[in-house]
C-alpha cells in the first residue's frame, strides 16, 4: 500500500490531474490511493469497468490536455485490453500511462491465478516500460530508499511519455504482494498525508520534464518556385500554429486535424496538382512541397509526395518523419521563407480551391446516381453547424475524409481524430475524454463549451460500451454524438473492393456486402436507452439540419436521462451509390 501511495503522490507532483481506474483485486492499493487523491481534490478520477474503454478515455483526456493520464488495472488479460490505445498513443505522441498491478514476479510460470508475464506486454508500442517491484520492497526495511526509488521510476517514465519529440504511451508494471489494503479508509488517508509530506520535503522531482526543444533546426526555403504546403495531424498544436503562421503566404492543403491555415486549398480538387497539363505557361504540378506534421488522408497527396521531381521538405515537432516514398530532401522544425511566390501560381491555387469547393457543393446539390442523403451530405451538415469554440472528434475512417470534403479545418474549432494508426476503435471513449477536458478548461462558463463527435455506425458499435458511465462518475455536460448510420462499411464503397465486378459471384453469392459492406442492423436507440443518453433520429437531410440547429439552441437535452448533457443523433443515410458520388466529386474536381 505504501508504494501505491508514493506512486500516486509522485504522479500528482509531476502534473497528473486526471486518472482512470478499472476495478480489480490486485490493483486495489492503486485504486484506493487514487480515490483518496480525488477525495482531497488533488486530481479528478474516472472509473470504468472495461479496460479497453477506459484506456481510450484516458487517451482522449491526454490528447486534449497534453498532460499524462494514467489508467490503472489488475493483472492478466486486463492489461492486454489497453494495447489498441497504447498503439495510438505512441504513434500520435500522446502521453498515456498504463499502471498495471501484477502478482509478484516470482509467481510467473507457476500456474498462479490471473498471472501472465506482462512486464513488456506492449513491446515496441510503448515508448518506455518500467517495473517497480513493490512486492519485494514491501518485505524490506528501508522504506525511505524504497520511496526514493519509486519516485525516480515514476519520473523516468513520465519523462519518456511527455518528451516533446519522442513521447507516447508508457507502461509501469507494479507487482504487489498479499496484504493489499489498509485496515480502514482513515489509515489510507493518514498514509497519503504522510507520503505527501515526505514528497514535499524532498528535492523537487520535476527533472522528468524533457527540455522544450524542437528535434530539428530551422529550414530556409526559397518559395520563388511554385510551392504547396500539405498539413496533416500534428502533436503540438501551438507549434503547428506558429509554423503555419510562418507559412501564411503559401497555399495549404490542410487535413481536418491540422490548425486552420491562412490560405486554405480545398481537397476536392487536389487531383489537379498531379496533372502535367499546362494552363498557358503554368504547370499545375508544384515544384516544391512543404509537409507539416503527418498527412495520411488523400491519395493524390501521396502521389505528389512520391514524385522524385518534386522537392519535398518536412517540418515536424517529433522524431516521426513522414517519408513513405523516400523522397524527402530536408527535415526541420521551423522555417524561414525567402523569395516571393509567383503570382500566377497563387492565382492557380485559389482557382483550384474554388474548383474543389464547387465540386462538392454542386455534386451534393444537383444529385445523380446516388441518394439524397449520404454520409457526405450528413458530414457537410454537421460541418455547417459547428461554431467557434467547439471541439470536434471525428471517426478515423470515411467520416474524416468526408470532413475534408466539407472543408475542415475551421478557424476556432479544434479537430481530433485517431489517425496515428487510423483505427476506428475507442472513438466514443476518446470523444468523452476530449469533452471532459474541453469543459474543464472553462469552469466559469454559463454553459459548458460543446464537443461534437461524428462517426459511422461501425465505429460507434466498436466502442458502444464507451457510453456506459456510472452514476458516480463525471460525465460530459455538452457532448453531441452524431452517428452516420449507413449500416456498414461505407469506406469500401469507394475503394477497389467496391468495384461492380467484385460485388457478387456469378451464382449470386454476395462478396462485397458480406465481407466489406458488413451490415449489422444494430439498434443504436437501444444502446442509448441502456446508457441513459438522449436519442434523436434523422431520416432526411432536412431533419438532420433541424436537429443540429435545435442542439445549437440547447433544445435537445433531456433532464430525465441519466446523462442529460449527452445527446446522440442518428443520421440514417444510404451508402449505396456513394461510389458514384465520390467519382462525380472527383470528376468535377478535375480528375480524369
UniProtKB/TrEMBL annotation:
<keyword id="KW-0460">Magnesium</keyword>
<dbReference type="Pfam" id="PF02776">
    <property type="entry name" value="TPP_enzyme_N"/>
</dbReference>
<dbReference type="GO" id="GO:0030145">
    <property type="term" value="F:manganese ion binding"/>
</dbReference>
<comment type="similarity">
    <text>Belongs to the TPP enzyme family. MenD subfamily.</text>
</comment>
<dbReference type="InterPro" id="IPR004433">
    <property type="entry name" value="MenaQ_synth_MenD"/>
</dbReference>
<keyword id="KW-0479">Metal-binding</keyword>
<comment type="function">
    <text>Catalyzes the thiamine diphosphate-dependent decarboxylation of 2-oxoglutarate and the subsequent addition of the resulting succinic semialdehyde-thiamine pyrophosphate anion to isochorismate to yield 2-succinyl-5-enolpyruvyl-6-hydroxy-3-cyclohexene-1-carboxylate (SEPHCHC).</text>
</comment>
<dbReference type="GO" id="GO:0030976">
    <property type="term" value="F:thiamine pyrophosphate binding"/>
</dbReference>
<keyword id="KW-0474">Menaquinone biosynthesis</keyword>
<comment type="subunit">
    <text>Homodimer.</text>
</comment>
<comment type="pathway">
    <text>Quinol/quinone metabolism; menaquinone biosynthesis.</text>
</comment>
<keyword id="KW-0786">Thiamine pyrophosphate</keyword>
<keyword id="KW-0464">Manganese</keyword>
<dbReference type="GO" id="GO:0070204">
    <property type="term" value="F:2-succinyl-5-enolpyruvyl-6-hydroxy-3-cyclohexene-1-carboxylic-acid synthase activity"/>
</dbReference>
<dbReference type="GO" id="GO:0009234">
    <property type="term" value="P:menaquinone biosynthetic process"/>
</dbReference>
<feature type="domain" description="Thiamine pyrophosphate enzyme N-terminal TPP-binding">
    <location>
        <begin position="3"/>
        <end position="119"/>
    </location>
</feature>
<protein>
    <recommendedName>
        <fullName>2-succinyl-5-enolpyruvyl-6-hydroxy-3-cyclohexene-1-carboxylate synthase</fullName>
        <ecNumber>2.2.1.9</ecNumber>
    </recommendedName>
</protein>
<dbReference type="GO" id="GO:0000287">
    <property type="term" value="F:magnesium ion binding"/>
</dbReference>
<keyword id="KW-0808">Transferase</keyword>
<dbReference type="InterPro" id="IPR012001">
    <property type="entry name" value="Thiamin_PyroP_enz_TPP-bd_dom"/>
</dbReference>
<comment type="pathway">
    <text>Quinol/quinone metabolism; 1,4-dihydroxy-2-naphthoate biosynthesis; 1,4-dihydroxy-2-naphthoate from chorismate: step 2/7.</text>
</comment>
<dbReference type="InterPro" id="IPR029061">
    <property type="entry name" value="THDP-binding"/>
</dbReference>
Amino acid at each position: 500500500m505504501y508504494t501505491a501511495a508514493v506512486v500516486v503522490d509522485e504522479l500528482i507532483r509531476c502534473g497528473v490531474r486526471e486518472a482512470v481506474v478499472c476495478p480489480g483485486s490486485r490493483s486495489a492499493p492503486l485504486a484506493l490511493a487514487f480515490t483518496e487523491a480525488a477525495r482531497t481534490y488533488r486530481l479528478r478520477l474516472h472509473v470504468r469497468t472495461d479496460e479497453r474503454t477506459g484506456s481510450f478515455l484516458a487517451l482522449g483526456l491526454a490528447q486534449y490536455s497534453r498532460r499524462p493520464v494514467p489508467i490503472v488495472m489488475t493483472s492478466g488479460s486486463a492489461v492486454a485490453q489497453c494495447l489498441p490505445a497504447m498503439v495510438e498513443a505512441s504513434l500520435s505522441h500522446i502521453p498515456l500511462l498504463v499502471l498495471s498491478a501484477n502478482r509478484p514476479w516470482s509467481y510467473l510460470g507457476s500456474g498462479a491465478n490471473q498471472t501472465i508475464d506482462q512486464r513488456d506486454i506492449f513491446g515496441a508500442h510503448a515508448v518506455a516500460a518500467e517495473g517497480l517491484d513493490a512486492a519485494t520492497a514491501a518485505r524490506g526495511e528501508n522504506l525511505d530508499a524504497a520511496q526514493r526509488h519509486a519516485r525516480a521510476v515514476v519520473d523516468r517514465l513520465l519523462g519518456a511519455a511527455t518528451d516533446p519529440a519522442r513521447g507516447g504511451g508508457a507502461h509501469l508494471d507494479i507487482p504487489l504482494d498479499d496484504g493489499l489494503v489498509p485496515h480502514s479508509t482513515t489509515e489510507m488517508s493518514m498514509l497519503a498525508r504522510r507520503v505527501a509530506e515526505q514528497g514535499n520535503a524532498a528535492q523537487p522531482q520535476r527533472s522528468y520534464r524533457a527540455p522544450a526543444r524542437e528535434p530539428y533546426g530551422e529550414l530556409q526555403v526559397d518559395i520563388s518556385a511554385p510551392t504547396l504546403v500539405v498539413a496533416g495531424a500534428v502533436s503540438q498544436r501551438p507549434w503547428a500554429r506558429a509554423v503555419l503562421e510562418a507559412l501564411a503566404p503559401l497555399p495549404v492543403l490542410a487535413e481536418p486535424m491540422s490548425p486552420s491555415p491562412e490560405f486554405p486549398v480545398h481537397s476536392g480538387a487536389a487531383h489537379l496538382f498531379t496533372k502535367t497539363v499546362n494552363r498557358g505557361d503554368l504547370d499545375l504540378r508544384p515544384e516544391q512541397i512543404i509537409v507539416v506534421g503527418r498527412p495520411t488522408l488523400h491519395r493524390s497527396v501521396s502521389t505528389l509526395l512520391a514524385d522524385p521531381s518534386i522537392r519535398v521538405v518536412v517540418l515536424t515537432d517529433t522524431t516521426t518523419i513522414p517519408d513513405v516514398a523516400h523522397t524527402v530532401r530536408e527535415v526541420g522544425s521551423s522555417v524561414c521563407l525567402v523569395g516571393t511566390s509567383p503570382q500566377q501560381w497563387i492565382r492557380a491555387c485559389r482557382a483550384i480551391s474554388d474548383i474543389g469547393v464547387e465540386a462538392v457543393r454542386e455534386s451534393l446539390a444537383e444529385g445523380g446516381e446516388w441518394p439524397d442523403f449520404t454520409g457526405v451530405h450528413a458530414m457537410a451538415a454537421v460541418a455547417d453547424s459547428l461554431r467557434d469554440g467547439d471541439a470536434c472528434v471525428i471517426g478515423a475512417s470515411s467520416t474524416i475524409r468526408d470532413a475534408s470534403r466539407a472543408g475542415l479545418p475551421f478557424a476556432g474549432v479544434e479537430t481530433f481524430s485517431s489517425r496515428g494508426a487510423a483505427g476506428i476503435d475507442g472513438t466514443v471513449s476518446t470523444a468523452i475524454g476530449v469533452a471532459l477536458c474541453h469543459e474543464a478548461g472553462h469552469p466559469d462558463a454559463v454553459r459548458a463549451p460543446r464537443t461534437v463527435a461524428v462517426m459511422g455506425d461501425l465505429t460507434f458499435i466498436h466502442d458502444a460500451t464507451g457510453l456506459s458511465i456510472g452514476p458516480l462518475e463525471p460525465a460530459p455536460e455538452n457532448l453531441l454524438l452524431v452517428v452516420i448510420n449507413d449500416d456498414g462499411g461505407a469506406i469500401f464503397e469507394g475503394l477497389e473492393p467496391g468495384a461492380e465486378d467484385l460485388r457478387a459471384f456469378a451464382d449470386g453469392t454476395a462478396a462485397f456486402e458480406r465481407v466489406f459492406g458488413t451490415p449489422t442492423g444494430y439498434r443504436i436507440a437501444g444502446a442509448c436507452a441502456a446508457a441513459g443518453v438522449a436519442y434523436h433520429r434523422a431520416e432526411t437531410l432536412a431533419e438532420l439540419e433541424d436537429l443540429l440547429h435545435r442542439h445549437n439552441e440547447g433544445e435537445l437535452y433531456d433532464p430525465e436521462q441519466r446523462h442529460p448533457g449527452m445527446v446522440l443523433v442518428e443520421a440514417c443515410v444510404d451508402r449505396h451509390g456513394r461510389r458514384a458520388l465520390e467519382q462525380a466529386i472527383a470528376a468535377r474536381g478535375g480528375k480524369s
